[in-house]
Prior knowledge:
alpha+beta, two-stranded antiparallel ribbon
Amino acid sequence: xxxxxxxxxxxxMVRPEATIQKAAQxxxxxGISGMPVTEEDGQLVGIVSEGDLIRRTEIGTERRRSWWLDxxxxxxxxxxxxxxxxxxxxxxxxxxxxITASETAxxxxxxxxxxxxxxxxxxxxxxxxxxxxxxxxxxxRALAATPVQEPLGADDKTIxxxxxxxxxxxxxxxxxxxxxxxxxxxxxxxxxxxxxxxRQAIRVAAESTPGVKRVTDNLYQLPASAE
Length: 227
């Protein structure tokens, strides 16, 4: 699946010259946490989100520091805080560094952008103009809409081989120390692991193997080596 397959095309946008009050009203009215800022021709120039609007003098949330900390704070930072709390226009508080993607970006690429930059949404652009938006929620909806795969018909021997192959592929997966038994699709796992994370990964590897009906975890953790 690509970005164009799940992106929202009817994107709520705001102009840079719009008032802060108007931006807040749009966010509340449409139940969204952020939106692109575009020029009249659709050119993307920024993003404004709830985080840009929470430090406001109107509601008494502007940033306040103790007098000594204020003395240590660079004047540029104090000026930026003042603008964020008192600005009238969206252009003064919006984030101008916008992470974007193309319509042909894969969902894996979108997920990487969201994680890497700690953002909630990625504008989808074509020739600098916004044509859609993909958010974390869109990825979750795509997952929810994915059909559940029916277990492939396989005998216990085949299922066991698949599980062992998956364990072997895990970082630190000591498949040669594992005992895996399968009976009518019910799996028992036996053997040592060197971390809770690996134990969980092995169980998940078994549970996600086609044909598996149930997994019983009999693994045990090796004692930590003395330094």
